[in-house]
Amino acid sequence: MSRRKDQGGRREHLITAAERSIVHHGLARTKIRTIANEAGISPGLINYYFTELDDLYRAVYQEAIERFWTQRRRLIDGIAEPRDRLAAMVRSGLPLGPDDATCRLLYEFHPQIARNPVVKSLRTTLYDRQVALYESLLLAGASVGVFTLASPAASIAHNLVALEDAYGLHIVTGFSVTREQAERYLLDYAGAATGTPPTQAPTAS
After folding, report:
1. Is 182 found in the same domain as 124?
2. Residue 61 and residue 161 in contact, taking contact as beta carbons nearer than 8 Å
3. Any idea what the CATH number is for the domain that residue 190 is in?
4. How many domains does the chain have?
5. Are residues 116 and 180 both part of a single domain?
6. CB pairs under 8 A, 24+ apart, for 163-171?
7. CA distances for 49 relative to 8, 10, 36, 41, 138, angstroms
8. Do 134 and 77 belong to one domain?
9. What is the pTM of this model?
10. Distance (Å, rounded) from C-alpha 169 to C-alpha 161?
11. pLDDT digits (tens, 9 = 90+) for 181-205
12. Host domain of residue 122
C-alpha cells in the first residue's frame, strides 16, 4: 500500500513539474529533460511513469477538465435560480487573473491543437463538455419560463464558451480586456441572449 501511495505521489510531483515547465518555458520548449530538471529527477524516471510525453499531457489536461467542467457542474447544481446559475457559470469560466496558472497552461496548448491529435482530442472534449453544460442550463431556464432564448440554446452555449476562451486570453496576457470587463461583457451577452439579465453570481465561500 505504501509503495502505491509513493507512486501516486511521484506521479503528482511530475505532473506539477510539467505544469510549471510549460508555464515558465512554453509548451514548444518543454521536453522530458526540461520536466526532469524542474522535478529534480532523471529523465529515465519520468519515462517509468509516463512512457510518452502525450501521456503526461493527458494528465496535465485533466486538471483543467476538473476545474472547467466537473467543478462548474457541481457549482451550478447547488444553485436553484436560473439567472444565478447562469451568472455563476459565466464567472467560473474566466481566468482569475494574469497569474492563473491553469489558464495559462491551457493557452500554451493552443498552438498544438492543429499539430498534435492528443492535444486536439483533449481540447475538443473540454470544449464540448462546457458547451453541453451551458446548453443544459439554458434549456432548463427556458423550460420554467425564466429565459426567452433569442437563438437556439446550442448556439448561445457555443458563443458563451468561445467568448470565455477569447476573453480569457486577454486576461492571462494582460491585453486589452480585464477580467472585470470580460465578466461584464459576457453577462451582457448572456442577458441579451436569454431575455433577462443574469443576477450577480454569489461569491463562493
Report:
1. yes
2. no
3. 1.10.357.10
4. 2
5. yes
6. 163/189, 164/90, 164/93, 164/94, 164/130, 167/94, 168/93, 168/94, 168/95, 168/103, 168/106, 168/107, 169/107, 171/94, 171/95, 171/97, 171/98, 171/100, 171/103
7. 10, 9, 12, 12, 42
8. yes
9. 0.80
10. 13
11. 999 999 999 999 999 987 764 444 3
12. 61-194
Query: Which residues are within 8 A (CB) of 187 and not within 5 positions of it... i.e. 6 or more apart?
Result: 87, 90, 197, 198
Neighbours of 57 (CB within 10 A): 21
Amino acid occupying residue 35: I
Q: Is the pLDDT of residue 26 over 90?
A: no
What mean pLDDT comes out for the span 118-129? 89
pLDDT band for position 55 (cuts 50, 70, 90): confident
Cell of 28: 514548444
**Cell numbers 502525450 label which residue?**
54
Average pLDDT score over residue span 131-150: 97
Lowest mean pLDDT among 97-101, 107-111, 147-151: 107-111
Domain boundary residue among 33, 51, 69? Answer: 51
Q: Which one-letter DSSP state was computed for residue 1? A: -
3-class DSSP assignment, residue 17: helix
CB-based contact 100:152 (threshold 8 Å): no
The reply to whether 5 and 38 lie within a common domain is yes
